[in-house]
Every structure is written in structure tokens, then in C-alpha cells.
Amino acid sequence: MKICCIGAGYVGGPTMAMIAKQCPEVEVTVVDINAERIAAWQTDELPIYEPGLLEVVREARGRNLFFSTEVDDAIRAADVVFVSVNTPTKTFGEGAGRASDLQYWELCARRIKEVSTSDKIIVEKSTLPVRTADAMERVLHAGDNPVHFEVLSNPEFLAEGTAIADLENPDRVLIGGHETEAGQRALQTLVDVYAHWIPRERILTSNVWSSELSKLTANAFLAQRVSSINAISQLCEATEADVAEVANAIGTDSRIGPKFLKASVGFGGSCFKKDILNLVYLCETYGLDEAAAYWQQVVEMNEFQQTRFVKTILHSMFNTIAGKRIAVLGFAFKADTGDTRESPAIKVCRELALERAEVVVSDPKALGNAKQDLEGVESVVFEADPYAAVAGAHAVAVLTDWEAYKTLDFERIYAAMEKPAFLFDGRNMLDHAALHAMGFEVYSIGKGRLSHLD
Ligand code: UDX
Ligand code: UDX
User: What is the spatial distance between Cα 317 and Cα 319, in angstroms, rounded to a whole number?
Assistant: First the structure.
């Protein structure tokens, strides 16, 4: 069997590397229009950073895993074509800011139709609005091409930073196919690929529409948990309840479960906001305004949490931060990645700058992206060394849960700062009592403040 994957990005690259590793008899070719990216996949300096990825790639590369820019040849030779190109939020025209931009997807479908000379299974890997397969099938079968294409949906649930573990040992794999004979045959072909390493009971099958919608729904539910606990964090601050204690108390209820209940400055990442807005747009398209408004609120609560964090900084520092140096520790949207897409740090830094604070951004992996995200924002500087960032600062704001921040020498940091020295923990990850004992004014999310000023 020959597999081709169009799109050598964050999803396509690791997923194909894992399939190639686990299925040595299957030939896997990953293609991309970006020649630089393809070149990088052929070296040990891979274009994306994921723990364990290089080992998986090395095992299969040159054996049955290939990277190429010869898109047409790879499509023509393949039995199965995964499409894993980006589907960003539309920035223009109808649905701008919410709907998915499907132009790359449709271009791929047209290309597949144009170059194919034999029947193929087309697998939607990219996150797409429900019923995209319908449109794709119409594009693929337009005209009098005798070739038959069977479209499957196989959404990806991996999270950044844990992609390899998520691929190796997933909670489930989901494959949607049509309820026709050809659809079921195609579905079985893909089930057999995953069954090389995933127990059969964890490979779920459904119809195409359920599969497409499950991806959007999974991300919406995850994001909703974060927004829900963040809404409670606000109430905790007003009532002296402690959000970590509340999360622990509710998380031990097996019906609720303990994961994704960490209050924070907000969720980020390339998927959550994009997928919820996509869901909202879909609901509206079907005239389901109440359902749309319900999910829209998850995004709004998230934006509000970020603004609220800046307000806490401003109000606690005597209602003025103009000219004050504020060291931001962490810019990535979560730990163990240099990715800053939709990171709450972007909004927080911009709003601090609007208050004319002097913002110093530090991050172990994300400074390159941070510079792009904050381009044009005045009074922002970048400093890789956290100790240099905090020198002379009036406040420190922790925005990413980097493990390394837990072991910083806070005595040294306190000594280097202006007094009173404020610390805002946007991830609730530090030892607040110890910091308070050192002399800090400590503010966190959903916990009472620890102050020496009362
Ligand atoms: C993935 C999914 O595909 C997306 O739908 C999901 O919502 C997020 O994750 P990701 O792998 O992160 O996207 O995207 P990206 O890293 O941008 O990779 C996409 C690749 O496709 C790029 O390397 C791009 O060059 C390539 N591409 C795009 C093509 O090869 N052909 C095209 O026509 C368009
Ligand atoms: C997410 C989904 O988890 C994954 O299944 C999907 O395929 C892509 O989107 P990812 O964006 O990589 O993955 O990160 P994730 O670990 O889900 O975190 C998203 C954001 O929520 C981060 O900013 C994180 O810091 C935040 N978060 C997460 C919280 O604030 N609190 C939590 O309890 C959990």
C-alpha cells in the first residue's frame, strides 16, 4: 500500500512518521509546496519541535518514509491520500473572522482530481466544518473522470508537546466513512492501518458527518472546561474560596474528572478559538442562534480573563503602570513549545503597553515568535535571560507554565526588583506562601492576594 500526505506541518509530519514507523510494509510519502520545510524534514533539524519525534522519523526515514515536493507524482502513485493542509480562520468576505478558509483544501481536491489515474481513498486530516466531505466529493467527481474517490474523515486529536505519546497511545482514533459498500471498504482499509498498533476497541468508526463534527466538539468541550473554571476563578477571588481547592473537589467526582480544570490567564493555541468560532458559524448557518451564542461565550470568557488579568495588575499597582517595568515570564501559549499562536501573552502585553508600561518579555523557546507578534508595539523589549528581564522591574507576570520557572532563584529576583515587588502568577504554578514570606506582593488566579501593604 502507498500513502501520500499533502501538508508536512505540525499534524501531517508527526502522524505520517508514526504510521510509517508502525507499518513498515506501507510506503508513506509526505509532500508539501514549501520546499524549505521538506528539506528540513530530511535533516535532523526537523521543522517542528516535538519530544521524541526525531527518533520516530529516523527509524522510518529512507526505509518507508519519504519527504518530497513532487506533489503530483506522490498523489498519482498513492492508494490513500491524507490531506493535512492548513485551514485557518477566514480573514475576508462572508464569515470573516469565524468561518474556515477552505481555499487550500479545495485546491488540493482539484489537484488530486487532475492528476489521478486510479481509484483513491481521500482522508480528511485537517479540521474542517461538518459536511466538507460533501463539497469535496462534488469537486473530486465533477466532470467525466472515471476515477472513483472515497472520502473518509479521520480527525487528529494530538496536542502540541505530547504529539508522539498521543499518536503512539491515543485515547481513541476516529474514522468516519459513508454507509455505502465502497465507503465501508475504504473505512476498513484505514482501520487496518491503525490496527497495526492501536487496540481495535480504541478505533471508533462513525459516519462522515459525525466524525467531522466530533473534532470541533472535542475542542469546544475542552476549551469550555477552561472557561468554566476561569469563570469560577473570578468568583473565588471575590469570596476567598481557592480555585485550586474547588477544582480538586469537583475533579474527584468521576463524572467530572480531574483534567483541564486548571484556572489560568486563558487558553491559547492554534485550535481552540478557531474551532469554536467555526462551530459558532456553523450553528448560525443552520439558524441555531442560541447554540451559537452559547459557544461564543466560551471565547468571550477567555478574552475577558486576559483583560481581567491586566486590570488586576493595574489596580493592585496603585492604578498606574505608566513607566513601570513589568517583566513577562513566558510568552508561548503553553509550556514545552515555541508556538505563540493565540497565546494570551499577546493580548496581555499589548494591553500593558497601552497603559504605557515598559514591558520586558522573556521565554526559553518563543522569543522569535514573540517579536513578530508584538511588532510595532512600542516600549516592549525582549530578554532571553529571566534574571536580566526582572532587573529593576516593578512587577513580574508569569504567563506560561514553563517547569523551569518553578526553580528560579526568587530571593535573587526579589533583591533585583523595585519595591514593593509585585508578582502576578497567571498559571498558579509558584509557591505563593514562600514568595510572600520573601517579601513579594503575590497575586494569582482565583486565590486571595498575599500582601504586606494592608
Ligand atoms: C493542522 C490541520 O491541518 C489544521 O486543519 C488544524 O486545524 C491544525 O493543524 P498544521 O499541520 O498545524 O495544521 O498546519 P501547518 O503546520 O500550517 O501545515 C500545513 C502545511 O500544508 C504547510 O507546511 C503548507 O506549506 C502545506 N500546504 C498548504 C501544502 O502543501 N499545499 C497547500 O496547498 C497548502
Ligand atoms: C488542543 C487539543 O488538546 C488537541 O486535542 C487538539 O488536537 C488541538 O488543540 P493544544 O492546542 O496543543 O491541543 O493544547 P492543549 O494542551 O489542549 O492546551 C490548550 C490551551 O489551554 C493552552 O493555552 C493551555 O495552557 C490551556 N489550558 C489547558 C488551561 O489554561 N487550563 C487547563 O486546565 C488546560
Answer: 6
